[in-house]
Structure formats: structure tokens, C-alpha cells
Design goal:
This protein is of the alpha/beta class. The protein is built from 11 helices and 8 strands. Bound molecules: 2-phosphoglycolic acid (PGA).
Length: 256
């Protein structure tokens, strides 16, 4: 196949940042800046729940997608404080970040829970972005592959084989998140190639088409070399997604 089977994907994870007004201004400014790249790159931002509506308003009619940062496991019910996948679809959200390392660390999200959330998102019509990645201790102990194998296999376990390619996997080494310590291009490529091979154990076709992203201290000055890896389909970006100029530069880097 001469044409690349996967469209690059740049996703801005805003975490607990930005008011509604800041969200609206950001999306309104971002949309025209990335419009020319939209033919080649998918672009999404992930605001806090209370700013989703503001983001969706500003993104209407543009190429910018709006994702949530997490969701509840059940479609509805007695789960105080949770927001379900069907509720997110109802307001127009396109996708959802699942199993971010901050939620694994702070909110006790486990691979078992994610095994249920990933297919729940798909069933509701959301694009799941499953986050995986090893800690520094795990890497130093030679446990990276074992950790990734567990996270990927369990996170995708209940996804029907024919829908694997609809999931996005973000490899984010915990030691590179918000630290300014970015993985080398070789480390990123190696881990993403490994993730793709794990998907290939389930389905060759799924592995060819599933998008795998790198995350962890991606900035405009290091993006190009990371994105050059053959298995690197884009990035999940935290800090550098909070400034329009930086995030637009990252989208431009992915379009090249
Ligand atoms: P960072 O965050 O780009 O600030 O390292 C990445 C993430 O947590 O998704």
C-alpha cells in the first residue's frame, strides 16, 4: 500500500485547566490556525467536563474535535459524581481519554476497570484513547514490556476484534509526563512498535490501522523527531497544549 494507512492525530489534554471563557477563546483561535492541516491531521482538545459545552460551541463547523478526559463505566445509574459515555455523546463529545496515569495513580483506575470502560465508550459511539505506560522503577527493573503487555492486552480484551482499529492507544511513560524529560525518539518508537505488535497478536489488520500516540513532554522543539518514528501516529500533549501557538505548531509538525 503506498498511502499511509493511518492519519496523524494530535490531542491536547488540558487536565484541570481553563475556564469556559478560556476554552472558548482557545478553540476559536485554534480552529483557523489548523484549518489548512485538517486534510492531513486529526486534531482534538480535552477540556474539563464543565467546559465541554463551551468547547463544542466554539468548535462547531471546524475540524477541531472535543474529547472528555474520563468517563464512568456504567451507562447510567447510582454512581454519584460520574458522567457516562452516552451523556458525553449526547452533548456532542467525540472521544474520551481513558486510564491516564494520573487517574491510575490518584483515582485507583485499574486495567480491570479499563477493560470495561474501553468497550463501553465504543458502544456509546465515543472514540476511546487508552493510555498506557511504565513508571521509571518499572523501566529500570526491566519490566517495561511486561507492564505494557498487561495494560494493552487487558485494556483491549473486551473490544471486539473487528473494532480494535477504532481505539487509539497513547503510550505515555510516567517518568516523561509533565517532567520535561521526553523519551528519546528511539525509546518512543520502540515502545509504540511494541504496542502495535501486541495489537497484532489479536489482529494483523487491526494493528495496521490502530493509531498509537506518544505522550510525555512533547513540545514544538522536540515533536518532529518523535513523530518521525514509523509507528508514531501522533501525540497526546499536556503542558504544550495549553498555549494556542504551541499546540498549533505541534499540529503543523504532524502535518509534515
Ligand atoms: P505533558 O503531559 O505533555 O505535560 O508531559 C502529557 C499527558 O499527561 O498527557
Amino acid at each position: 500500500m503506498s498511502e499511509h494507512p493511518r492519519r496523524p492525530y494530535m490531542v491536547g489534554n488540558w487536565k484541570m485547566h481553563k475556564t469556559r471563557a478560556e476554552t472558548r477563546d482557545f478553540v476559536a483561535e485554534l480552529a483557523p490556525r489548523v484549518a489548512d492541516h485538517a486534510a492531513y491531521v486529526d486534531v482534538a482538545v480535552c477540556p474539563a467536563f464543565v467546559s465541554l459545552a463551551a468547547a463544542l460551541d466554539a468548535a462547531r463547523g471546524t475540524a477541531v474535535r472535543v474529547h472528555a478526559q474520563t468517563m464512568g463505566r456504567a451507562p447510567q445509574g447510582a454512581h454519584t459524581g460520574e458522567v457516562s459515555a452516552p451523556m458525553l455523546v449526547d452533548v456532542g463529545v467525540h472521544g474520551v481519554v481513558l486510564g491516564h496515569s494520573e487517574r491510575r495513580r490518584d483515582d485507583g483506575e485499574t486495567d480491570r476497570l479499563l477493560a470495561e470502560k474501553v468497550p463501553a465508550a465504543l458502544e456509546a459511539g465515543l472514540e476511546p484513547i487508552l493510555c498506557v505506560g511504565e513508571t521509571e522503577e518499572e523501566r529500570d527493573a526491566g519490566e517495561m514490556e511486561r507492564r505494557l503487555r498487561h495494560q494493552v492486552q487487558e485494556g483491549l480484551e473486551l473490544v471486539p476484534t473487528e473494532r480494535l482499529a477504532e481505539v487509539v492507544v497513547a503510550y505515555e511513560p510516567v517518568w516523561a509526563i509533565g517532567t520535561g524529560r521526553v523519551a528519546t525518539p528511539e525509546q518512543a518508537q520502540e515502545a509504540l512498535g511494541f504496542v502495535r505488535a501486541l495489537v497484532g497478536d489479536r489482529s494483523r489488520a487491526g494493528a495496521e490501522r490502530i493509531r498509537v500516540l506518544y505522550g510525555g513532554s512533547v513540545k514544538p522543539d522536540n515533536a518532529a523527531e518523535i513523530l518521525a518514528g514509523p509507528d508514531v501516529d501522533g501525540a497526546l500533549v499536556g503542558g504544550a497544549s495549553l498555549e494556542v501557538a504551541d499546540f498549533a505548531a505541534l499540529v503543523a509538525a504532524a502535518a509534515r
